[in-house]
Structure formats: structure tokens, C-alpha cells
Design a protein that fits this description.
Structural class: alpha+beta
Order of helices and strands: EEEEHHHEHH
Number of strands: 5
CATH class: Alpha Beta
Strand content: 15-25%
Helix content: 25-40%
Strand order of the largest sheet: 1-2-5-3-4
CATH architecture: 2-Layer Sandwich
């Protein structure tokens, strides 16, 4: 019996951090689906911070996300820090995907746009809560 050779899936895996939260994004070719812990990005809670989570899409345009699927796993911490880790993870994954599989020129445009708006979209904030001295 003949076996089929496994096809190589073009994908990248990136992470975003905020305090003790780690968000890992698995990005591959697809049809524009973004899921966070198995549910769509439209169901992000709290509602007020949803726009923070979709900031990379608003900045770069929905068309850049139309050809990729992203699955995000988030662990630890509170709601607000989750959102900041998610947005950083999404931005990093898109930059890595464009760098590896698309075009270097478009990758540079994406990076410049994100850094010009908010540097923490690409670079992790190392601050953590200090222990009390008592």
C-alpha cells in the first residue's frame, strides 16, 4: 500500500507576554479566522477592551489578515493583561508570517506601522509586580 507524503504546512508560532500571562499564536494560511482559546475574537471579554485586542487589525487593515488563520492560547493572569498579551502575540505572528512566507517589503511596512503606533505591539513589557518588603 502506498502512503502519501505529509504536506508541509506553512505556519509560524509566536508569543506575547504581559506580566505573568503568555499568549501563543499559531498562524498559518487560511481564510481570516482568528480564535482565542477556541472562541472567535468577537467574543472577547471585557467588551471595553475588545478594541485593544483587534488593534493590529484596525491599524494594518483587514485585508492583511484575510489570508491567514490564527489560533491563540492564553494562560494566567487577569483580563486586562490577557488582552495586551493577545494583541502583542497577534502582531508578532503576522510580522513573522509575512517575513517567512510572503514579502520582505510588506513585512517592513507592517513593522514600521506597528512601531510608529505603539512599540509594545512588538516588544514585550518586562515590568512585573514587586514583592512587598514586609
Amino acid at each position: 500500500m502506498r502512503t502519501l507524503a505529509p504536506t508541509k504546512v506553512e505556519s509560524v508560532q509566536c508569543l506575547g507576554r504581559k506580566k505573568t500571562i503568555v499568549a501563543v499564536t499559531h498562524c498559518k494560511h487560511g481564510r481570516g479566522m482568528i480564535k482565542i482559546n477556541g472562541s472567535t475574537i468577537e467574543l472577547v471579554e471585557p467588551e471595553i477592551l475588545k478594541f485593544k485586542a483587534i488593534e493590529p487589525m484596525l491599524l494594518l487593515g483587514r485585508y492583511r489578515f484575510a489570508a491567514v488563520d490564527m489560533r491563540i492560547r492564553v494562560r494566567g493572569g487577569g483580563h486586562t493583561s490577557h488582552i495586551y498579551a493577545i494583541r502583542q502575540s497577534i502582531a508578532n505572528a503576522l510580522v513573522a508570517f509575512y517575513q517567512k512566507y510572503v514579502d520582505e517589503q510588506q513585512n517592513k511596512e507592517i513593522k514600521d506601522t506597528l512601531v510608529r503606533y505603539d512599540r509594545t505591539l512588538l516588544v514585550a513589557d518586562p515590568s512585573t509586580l514587586k514583592c512587598s518588603a514586609f
